Amino acid sequence: MNQQILIIGGMGPQASIELHRRIIAAAADQGAVNGDDFPEIIHASLPIRDFINAEELAPAAATINRALERFWNGGSQRVVMACNTAHILIPRLNFHAGQQLVSLTDETTNWIVAHQFQRIGLLASPTTLRSGLYARQLSTAGVQLILPAAHEVTELESIIRATIGGQAGQTVRLRVLVERLRAAGCERVLLGCTELSVVAGQLAGCLDPLQLVVPRLLASVPAEFSIHN
User: Fold this and answer.
1) Minimal CA–CA distance to 178: which of 203, 146, 210, 142?
2) Measuring CA to CA, which residue among 193, 164, 209 is closest to residue 85?
3) Average pLDDT along the chain
4) Does residue 20 surpass a pLDDT of 80?
5) Which range is least confidently modeled, 49-58, 63-72, 120-129?
6) What would the mean pLDDT of 53-61 be, rounded to a whole number?
7) Residue 98: which residues within 8 A CB-CB, separation 6 or more?
């Protein structure tokens, strides 16, 4: 566990705290006991203007690029953005030699394909849904993606904003949307927004990118990284 992990968070901050917690818990499960058994983690919780339902993304990309520059350690560093929506910014981001993006969307798509699922429901922010972020990757892999109805997108945005605002009771609201997609024949329901990962708890049938990315962050890797393309 000698590779530094850089968490780009703050979108919202509860989600990146949750990812940090899961990394530490997984390291303990793998046998970490003493302080120096755990990975070195830089957690950058960035005050980025809301892009849950936004068209203008350049300011968010600029803020993340400043963090990539500021927190680069000059060597090997795994970078994870604790926000699904932020992955649409990848073409605008400037990774340094030695920084490797561990992508929520890539890890999730790879897991779905490896387990041969054919019909996946997606719950995500309006911006993620509009961008076709998961749709492009999963359709290329031959997976049918079932999207929420328009009124459910409005409900999702409300759940996401309430979670960031610290309002309780969002798991009950999320369960209704998950059960609708499961009833429509979805083998799994993809939580395509990390705020949904925060409130999902033990909801059955969910696929959580935050959980799927943790093993990759902790895996032993060669000393040299390539820039994510």
Assistant:
1) 203
2) 193
3) 92
4) yes
5) 49-58
6) 85
7) 72, 73, 74, 75, 76, 77, 224, 225
Token couple for 108: 């999730």
Distance CA 47, CA 52 (A): 14
Token pair 């990539």 is found at: 68
Q: Is the pLDDT of residue 50 over 90?
A: no
Q: What is the pTM (predicted TM-score) of this model?
A: 0.92
Answer whether 119's CB lies under 8 Å from 205's CB: no
**Are 217 and 102 a contacting pair, CB within 8 Å?**
yes
pLDDT at 8 exceeding the cut of 90 = yes
DSSP codes, the chain: --SEEEEEE-SSHHHHHHHHHHHHHHHHHTT--SGGGSPPEEEEE--PPP-TT-S--HHHHHHHHHHHHHT--SS-EEEEES-SGGGGGGGG--PPTTEEE--HHHHHHHHHHHTT--EEEEE--HHHHHHTHHHHHHHHTT-EEEPPPHHHHHHHHHHHHHHHTT-S-HHHHHHHHHHHHHHTT-SEEEE-SHHHHHHHTT-TTEE-HHHHHHHHHHS---S------
